[in-house]
Design goal:
The complex is a heterodimer of chains A (about 325) and B (about 280).
Chain A: H1 12-21, E1 24-25, H2 38-46, H3 53-60, E2 62-66, E3 79-86, E4 89-96, H4 102-107, H5 115-130, E5 135-141, H6 148-152, H7 155-167, E6 173-182, H8 183-187, E7 194-198, E8 202-204, H9 208-216, H10 222-229, H11 233-239, E9 244-246, H12 257-275, H13 280-292, E10 297-298, H14 312-318
Parallel strand pairs in A: 4-5, 5-6, 6-7, 6-8, 7-9
Antiparallel strand pairs in A: 1-9, 2-3, 3-4
Chain B: E1 19-21, E2 28-30, H1 31-36, H2 52-59, E3 66-68, E4 73-74, H3 86-97, E5 103-110, E6 113-120, H4 131-147, E7 151-157, H5 165-184, E8 189-198, H6 199-202, E9 211-214, E10 220-221, H7 225-232, H8 243-248, E11 254-255, H9 258-277
Parallel strand pairs in B: 6-7, 7-8, 8-9, 8-10, 9-11
Antiparallel strand pairs in B: 1-2, 3-5, 5-6
Classes of the chains: A alpha/beta (about 325), B alpha/beta (about 280).
């Protein structure tokens, strides 16, 4: 039958061999015993020398042709995408692009997309669906751009629509978190059949600084927030947010772009090989279930019984006079 | 009506459990009257926040609301501790708001039309969406899907619940996937945005209604003021992120005063029902 998350803890018994062949880490115990602290991981994920989307695309894919613009407003340089070949077969690839220098970062808006960036991404998702080409997304953003122009052009709507499109896109979708997975701005590229993350990538609901500013009222508590939020690789495996981690070279991805890209390429080919054998209808229902299953809650009643109606005398006690009496 | 106070305006003449000052026009409002007016200032029409129960009272036909998943409570997936542990925060919010979490869901009728109704409450930890809110909304959407009833969600939320970390973020995808199914099945989904609707809630299901209505003056936007000023070093201009701003820029269908909200929702529900009855709703 279907091996939804080949490469995940939950499927490890039956299908672990595929993950092992692809060099993936599916269990936190497979990681080195001396792990970086969450705050060190945050720093590594943000390292300016870390391979960004373009570094990965040029090494992993052949004959990448970039496609520009959302056909409505402008081309957002913080998101790149296009058509390429992976192992001789066409794929659509979309990723958030950070800069590798200060100048490039300014041009790329530090990898913070505007709504038109997400609308470009959606255009490319639809293109993939139309021509039955698998989609690969590369997540690497501190978050969607929060400025006034982004609000004017509907940042929230763009993200919501992008998530919605991905939840029912009728082609295989593989997500790779390269560096920072910053909140909704990352999730707009992050809904897939398989979610992989580099070993030192992070994925969080808000930046550690933002969390610290709100809960501790001081951005300098970011280190504590990073620990509390459980945003680093092993935690992502535990919560199921990532199905597997891709091993980085010793010292981190920034020390060897080629080796990092090679590991990503092996993983992608293995996952696409597997997903391409799954009928699309099954793919979609499994994707629904994958995201449907997130949540930790308690239901004393077991969840089936509706609340008993309030007894009539309780209503009278609470509200002794009819509404219009006053 | 202007209040005349023969003894002069001293604050102690207006004890806060009896009187509320309108932040918009400064009028002192008698709380009972304010309640009766569904928390809208009689003088200037300023819309105060409305709790979930009062909202259900406003929208659902009398006695038609029956709550579902009422006892679902959050566990503490991360063991999160900031200045106090997350379970303590939940307990405090439960005591303060009288609800188990930040949303009430259930079956109801709006002007005689059966719907699935979900109402968020800002009183409970800023209406933030964690596992419980995500699960209850997803179940509401799934119930709407299987019973082929329209879904109405009234949002009031600061966004995803930080204390649940990435699990809270995943609720965006979860709820969006659930309302996407309604879209596929042509079951109406009406999203009502109230003060405030921001962050992860606006960036997920709340922006995906077939019809999106907003209350006058409601704060609606993607990023909170603090995040914006921290990231870009400037403040958003005044009037940004208000319901009327979104209307102007094309992201909500209408700004509807609270007094007309119910009949407006009923109008849309009716229109879709009539249009669909011959074509789609016959199973």
């Amino acid at each position: 039958m279907l091996d939804r998350i080949v490469g995940s803890r939950r499927a490890a018994e039956g299908n672990g061999h595929l993950a092992v062949e692809a060099g993936l880490i599916t269990d936190a115990t497979q990681l080195a015993s001396t792990r970086p602290t969450p705050w060190q991981t945050v720093q590594t994920a943000r390292n300016i020398a870390r391979p960004h989307a373009h570094d990965i695309i040029s090494r992993v894919f052949d004959r990448f042709q970039e496609l520009h613009g959302d056909r409505a407003f402008r081309d957002d340089p913080a998101i790149i995408g296009g058509i390429a070949e992976l192992g001789g077969r066409p794929v659509v690839v979309v990723g958030q692009q950070k800069g590798s220098s200060t100048e490039e970062n300014i041009e790329r808006n530090f990898g913070m997309p505007y709504p038109e960036g997400y609308r470009k991404a959606m255009r490319l998702y639809r293109l993939a669906q139309k021509f039955h080409v698998p989609l690969i997304t590369l997540v690497d953003t501190p978050g969607a751009y929060p400025g006034p122009e982004a609000e004017e052009r509907g940042q929230a709507e763009a993200i919501a629509s992008s998530i919605q499109l991905m939840t029912r896109l009728a082609v295989p979708v593989v997500v790779v978190v390269l560096g920072e997975g910053g909140s909704g701005g990352a999730l707009a590229l992050g809904v897939g059949d398989v979610v992989l993350a580099l070993e030192n990538a992070t994925y969080s609901v808000i930046s550690p600084e933002g969390c610290a500013a709100i809960l501790w009222r001081s951005a300098s508590e970011a280190e504590r927030a990073a620990v509390a939020m459980k945003l680093a690789g092993p935690d992502l495996l535990d919560t199921g947010v990532a199905d597997a981690l891709i091993r980085e070279p010793a010292g981190g991805a920034h020390t060897d772009h080629d080796a990092t890209a090679a590991a990503i390429k092996t993983a992608l080919i293995a996952q696409l090989e597997r997903l391409s054998r799954v009928p699309v209808a099954d793919l979609l229902s499994l994707r629904y279930e994958r995201f449907r299953s997130f949540g930790m809650f308690v239901e004393p009643s077991g969840g089936t019984a509706p609340a008993p109606p309030r007894p009539w005398w309780r209503r009278i006690l609470r509200n002794p006079l009819p509404k219009d009496a006053l | 009506m202007r209040l005349r106070n023969p003894f002069g305006r001293k604050t102690k003449e207006f004890p806060s459990h009896l009187w509320t000052q309108c932040p918009s026009c400064g009028e002192m409002l008698f709380n009972k009257q304010l309640d009766r007016n569904h928390n809208v200032c009689q003088k200037c029409g300023h819309h105060f926040k409305l709790g979930a129960l009062a909202r259900i009272d406003l929208l659902a036909d009398a006695k038609s609301f029956s709550e579902t998943d009422a006892d679902m409570v959050s566990s503490d997936p991360l063991g999160f501790v900031d200045s106090k542990p997350y379970p303590e925060r939940i307990a405090a919010a439960q005591a303060k708001s009288g609800h188990k979490d930040a949303v009430l869901t259930g079956d109801a009728q709006i002007s005689g039309i059966p719907v699935v109704l979900a109402v968020m409450d800002f009183e409970f930890m800023g209406g933030s969406m964690g596992s419980v809110v995500g699960e209850k909304l997803t179940r509401a959407a799934e119930r709407a899907y299987s019973a082929r009833k329209p879904l109405v969600i009234v949002s009031a939320s600061g966004g995803a619940r930080m204390q649940e970390g990435t699990i809270a973020l995943m609720q965006l995808a979860k709820t969006v996937a659930a309302v996407a199914r309604l879209d596929d099945a042509a079951i109406p989904f009406i999203s009502v945005l109230t003060d405030p609707t921001t962050g992860g809630v606006l960036a997920s299901f709340a922006s995906l209604g077939d019809i999106i209505l907003a209350e006058p003056g409601a704060l609606i936007g993607f990023s909170g003021a603090r995040v914006t000023s921290e990231t870009i070093g400037e403040k958003l201009p005044k009037g940004f992120q208000r319901a009327e701003f979104l209307l102007e820029h094309g992201f909500v269908d209408q700004v509807v005063p609270r007094s007309q909200l119910k009949e407006r929702i009923a109008f849309f529900l009716n229109a879709f029902r009539v249009a669909g009855q011959d074509l789609r709703w016959s199973l």
